[in-house]
Backbone:
């Protein structure tokens, strides 16, 4: 009886988690604009890239899967810059405790990353995109609609396939 009850409760929790994932942001829906400062202090808006595909990667320096995928995202950024029809925004969850601007700057510099890093110091972008865990990557199409999202680690090749679908 106990085992059956525990199994039932586990199933309810799994279904609830799936429902939360599905409701995060609906594919095909318009995304909200946000404005965040980059590492140089320049304010960047999502709407600055209207007409381009935008890859938004939410990450943190303390997150092992985030750190693992960063070399791929740096390579992705270099490839996207060559083609100039899509852009990567690496949105760091700069909470002022686990991640600070100086920690992020050091991490980027030590690893030689050249991607544009934005600092979400107040969690505004994370709230708009209902980010519950890291890393999370979303792809916004040229019309400003959510095309794809993944919760957890991904690769350059996967993101490039998604971008190619949009064209």
Residues:
């Amino acid at each position: 009886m106990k085992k059956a009850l525990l199994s039932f409760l586990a199933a309810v929790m799994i279904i609830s988690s799936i429902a939360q994932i599905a409701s995060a942001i609906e594919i095909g829906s318009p995304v909200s604009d946000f404005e965040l400062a980059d590492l140089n202090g320049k304010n960047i808006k999502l709407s600055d890239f209207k007409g381009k595909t935008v890859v938004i990667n939410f990450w943190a320096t303390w997150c092992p899967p985030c750190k693992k995928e960063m070399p791929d995202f740096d390579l992705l950024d270099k490839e996207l810059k060559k083609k100039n029809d899509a852009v990567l925004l690496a949105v760091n969850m700069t909470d002022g405790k686990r991640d600070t601007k100086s920690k992020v700057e050091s991490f980027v510099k030590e690893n030689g990353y050249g991607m544009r890093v934005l600092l979400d110091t107040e969690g505004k972008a994370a709230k708009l995109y209902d980010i519950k865990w890291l890393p999370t990557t979303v792809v916004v199409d040229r019309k400003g609609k959510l095309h794809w999202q993944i919760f957890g680690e991904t690769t350059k090749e996967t993101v490039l396939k998604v971008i190619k679908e949009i064209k």
